[in-house]
C-alpha cells in the first residue's frame, strides 16, 4: 500500500492531569497520539514537546512498523524525561516517512468521562 499522510504533524494542545493512583490504566486520564504507518518501511518518529515557560523536551523516539498503528500515550514517555503532569504543552511529531496522526484525550477526573479526538495539524 502507498504511504499515506505527512512527515510533520502538530498537536497544539496537550495536558496531563495528575495520575489517579486508584484508577486502572484503562480509566486513568491520558493523552495519546495515534500514529498510522500505511507504508512498506518502518517510520522513525521523533516527538518534541513545547511548554509555555521552559525549553522544549525531546526528542522522544519511537518506531511504527510498516502497515501498523501505534497508540502512544504521552503519559508513558520517559526518555529523555517524563512529561510533567498538570502542565500545558504542545507537540511536534516528525517522521522520516509519511504517517497519519490523530490526537486523543481521555479525561476521567469526574464521574462522567470525557473523550476527545481530532486529527493533528498536518504541517507538511
TrEMBL record:
Top-rank taxon, per record: Bacteria
InterPro entries reported in the protein's UniProt record: ASRT, TM1070-like_sf
Protein name listed in UniProt: Sensory rhodopsin transducer
Organism: Cupriavidus gilardii J11
